[in-house]
Amino acid sequence: MSDSQVKTNSLRAWILAARPKTLSGAAVPVMIGTAIAWAETTTNNFQVIPAILCFLFAFIMQIDSNFINDYFDCIKGNDDVETRLGPKRACSEGWITLPKMRMGLIITSLLGCLTGLPLVIYGGWTMIIVGALCVLFAFLYTTKLSYLGLGDILVLVFFGIVPVYFTYWVIVPQEMQVFNLRLLFAGIACGVVIDTLLIINNYRDRDNDKRDGKNTLVVRIGTTASELLYQNLGFIGAIIILCTTLFKPTSSHTILDYVIALLLTSIYIFFHVTTYRTMKKIKQGRELNKVLGLTARNMFFFGITSVITILLFW
């Protein structure tokens, strides 16, 4: 069935609105936080239930963010069918009516809260504040902050530092819930890599965004600087996760360990660089959606190679 044949408010319409391809961005930071928790605990004190809840919360909040983005961009007129360059959106295409989408985003917001609430048992009352901020900024990003060029900071915080740090926090025993600088750097590494997805998304839409007064970082710094930022964010994330994993006060790694870690990191770097070159070659238009898909794939490769590196050498 083609997109033009999607029945209004059907199950297929909701699946398309959920944007399954974006879920890798939700999974990767939880994967990394879980891997670090596993590396620092024993089989007996690694807590499985909060790990599962973190994955569920991340997936639900990603879908919730997608619904919010779909709904508010439609009512603001930013998803005009004629001029939109990105993938089709459910509300603007008529796949889901605005009242139904409004109900959908309310339900996913509530489901996110209900899924995250049990994490209080493992991480304390701080988790309520963390969960509330996740829901709040999911709304603020689309309605306010993306127009001010602050989306990249939100990605760093809510797709990097927060999920990596607090996934680890709720999985480990209470006596291990202390400030961890290496964990913070791992979260930063994850955040800057996931930000490449936002960069390419805004890079594709830079002309439309400028016309609509949406001053994303890409609009502010221009085309050439945005291309370099995309490239360098991938390098920075890979280097940080590599250094954070390998270099520690009690390090006893061999030369072979370093070689293996570098080879694992090189897998992500190779695909990131080839995607960057494709981005520069295409430059503009709907064909950049191909680069969007490749970037999502690269993020997943970063997650997998980082998890293996952490489990082997943390």
- Number of β-strand runs: 0
Q: How large is the share of residues in beta strands?
A: under 5%
Percent of residues in helices comes to over 70%
**What is the 3D shape?**
globular
Q: Mean pLDDT across all residues, rounded? A: 92
**Element string (H = helix, E = strand):** HHHHHHHHHHHHHH
Enumerate how many helices there are, as a single number.
14
As a whole number of angstroms, the C-alpha radius of gyration is 20 Å
Cα-to-Cα separation, first versus last residue:
47 Å
Which class do the helix and strand fractions yield?
Answer: mainly alpha
Q: Explain this structure to me?
A:
With 314 residues, the chain is mainly alpha-helical. The protein is built from 14 helices and no strands.
Question: Which key phrases capture this entry?
Answer:
globular, 75% helix, mainly alpha, 314 residues, 14 helices
List the helices and strands and how they pair.
Layout: H1 11-18, H2 23-40, H3 48-76, H4 90-93, H5 98-116, H6 120-123, H7 126-143, H8 151-171, H9 181-204, H10 206-211, H11 217-221, H12 223-246, H13 255-282, H14 288-313
Helix pairs in contact: 2-3, 2-8, 2-9, 2-14, 3-5, 3-7, 3-8, 5-7, 7-8, 8-9, 9-12, 9-14, 12-13, 12-14, 13-14
